[in-house]
Amino acid sequence: MLQLAARSLLLFLLLVSPAVASAGIAKLNSSSPLFGIEFPPFNTAVADTGCDSKLGAAEDAADEQKPASPSSSLKLHMTHRRGAEGGRTRKGSFLDLAEKDAVRVEAMHRRVASSSSSPRRGRALSESERVVATVESGVAVGSAEYLMDVYVGTPPRRFQMIMDTGSDLNWLQCAPCLDCFEQRGPVFDPAASSSYRNLTCGDPRCGHVAPPEAPAPRACRRPGEDPCPYYYWYGDQSNSTGDLALESFTVNLTAPGASSRVDGVVFGCGHRNRGLFHGAAGLLGLGRGPLSFASQLRAVYGGHTFSYCLVDHGSDVASKVVFGEDDALALAAHPRLKYTAFAPASSPADTFYYVRLTGVLVGGELLNISSDTWDASEGGSGGTIIDSGTTLSYFVEPAYQVIRRAFIDRMSGSYPPVPDFPVLSPCYNVSGVERPEVPELSLLFADGAVWDFPAENYFIRLDPDGIMCLAVLGTPRTGMSIIGNFQQQNFHVAYDLHNNRLGFAPRRCAEV
């Protein structure tokens, strides 16, 4: 079913014009990228190196930056994937996104199903070993469309990595690149970095990743010398195989001339990499598993919050990700800030951020969807996650059909329907209408929190064809529901792991 949907969605996107407008849609009953990362106050494990965008021109110089003055927050630059693709048309970009979404959703279902029937690897970790906790195999495909500039190694060299809250392992394509996808710029060369260190197969941390020959036992003849091989797979042909290693990651900050260096980051040095990552150098995982970049920073800084604000899909402006609290953004004081509690992981696949979705409102009316539709089963299926790497939003089939029917009924007679449009439904001909009116869409959570979306976050307008479609799709009843990044546009979304809750507030992210 998902493979058929992928083919259909590709056909649909071939029909889409290069210009995809996300604005210009009004609600019937309504009201309205990642540039920078900020860290909380840091300790002696992190050096404020003072390295900025000039570092790219000085990559071959010795790493002798003078420490900058400590600040209460540190910021690094990040760009939207489409904005970073230069001369590529939106049509070409959406073709990639279509294929990635279909593979990603299927891989997420496989991940939950496989991990729920497999025992967790490794042993319990002490507080000092928080960076090296268990990582599960079969994680979702990393297809996020927001790129983060990260400088890796000593001397530091610049790489653009995909940011993804739906996966954990950080990895780069590495020399020798035996089987790699095309990326912009050279691959990472561990031989050119004085701070690169392979983890050996005898290191306890090596037991937290799957070996290339999984599920067979790992051969480790010289525990103190042989490298730790890993195989991290995402679904279908998407995977990364290489050596687990430690390296220094330096991030550019939004303050002029400032940067921050984090030593000893666990990452995968991938010598064989396949999948839908073209253009990027690798992937930066922000999942809730301990091997993710977000988790490793928490271990270093003691921070328990990160957030991001995604610019709309039609924008080439950058926005930011924030690690730690940031008074400058004043998110806590936002008058429309809401929180909802995270749900416990529905299975040992604890990469994902689950929320307790209990209902959907269309036009202000709670739809008649059975409450058990949203439940996560003991076997790991079901439930709802929020994910930066999936583009559209997906609801399990029984809920999707009710949502779809609700829009069809409430918009009957409003605009000429476009029947048999590939994949997306309903679709309407809105040629000549500057701001089409559509019913409101809101999500209701178990603790009473309601997430109200602006119309441009759930209807996509395909100009110049004058077609407008509901940007929501269905997944199998046994799958999970996913709140994708299209619905998260222009919201400041906070992951408060200390209080186990998700925060969200409307923002014009290009102005943050």
UniProtKB/TrEMBL annotation:
Source species: Zea mays (Maize)
Annotated catalytic residues: D164, D387
GO BP term (any one): proteolysis
Keywords: Aspartyl protease, Glycoprotein, Hydrolase, Protease, Signal
GO molecular function: aspartic-type endopeptidase activity
Residue ranges constituting the Peptidase A1 domain according to the UniProt record: 146-505
N-terminal signal peptide: 1-21
Region (Disordered): 57-89
Family: Belongs to the peptidase A1 family.
Gene name as annotated: LOC100272542
Record-given protein name: Eukaryotic aspartyl protease family protein
One of the Pfam families matching this protein, by short name: TAXi_C
Top-level taxon in the UniProt lineage: Eukaryota
